[in-house]
Write a structure and sequence with these properties.
- The structure is a single chain.
- By secondary structure, the protein is mainly beta.
- It is 5% helix and 47% strand.
- The protein contains 1 helix and 11 strands.
- Strands 2, 4, 5, 6, 9, 10 and 11 form a 7-stranded mixed beta sheet that branches. It has a 4-stranded antiparallel beta sheet with strand order 1-3-8-7, with no helix packed on it.
- Strand 7 and strand 8 form a beta hairpin.
- The chain starts with a strand and ends with a strand.
């Protein structure tokens, strides 16, 4: 199956920044929408941000509050999630996933990475 590999997570202080990377294949990057999800222990996985295949249209979940930016680099076959002004409630495992379109429905995303841990704590 096509693979997606997340990296860039770590431990940061509140107010700090991280850039997550989702490395995938050229085929996936050019054929699928890529969405970032996150899951905190004991909580349901929730959507964070998505970038569409067509025209690179993006969307962001409410709790991002304009702090995150999703982008893609076709040269590196990578989708990024720039996270600024991080808050403790952003602590979670972050996953990237590929699907036919940006959607709230998680079952529309067929391919998932294994996640990268983001911890925001003082």
């Amino acid at each position: 199956q096509p693979q997606l590999v997340e990296s860039g997570g770590g431990l940061v202080q509140p107010g700090g920044s991280l850039r997550l990377s989702c490395a995938t294949s050229e085929f996936i990057l050019n054929s699928y929408a890529i969405k970032w999800f996150r899951r905190a222990p004991g909580k349901e996985r929730e959507g964070v941000s998505c970038i569409s295949t067509s025209d690179g249209i993006t969307d962001y979940s409410y709790f991002v509050k304009g702090r995150f930016t999703i982008s893609r680099d076709y040269t590196k076959n990578t989708v990024y999630l720039q996270m600024n002004n991080l808050k403790p409630e952003d602590t979670a495992v972050y996953y990237c996933a590929a699907g036919s379109r940006c959607s709230r429905a998680q079952n529309e995303y067929n391919y998932w990475g294994q996640g990268t841990q983001v911890t925001v704590s003082s």
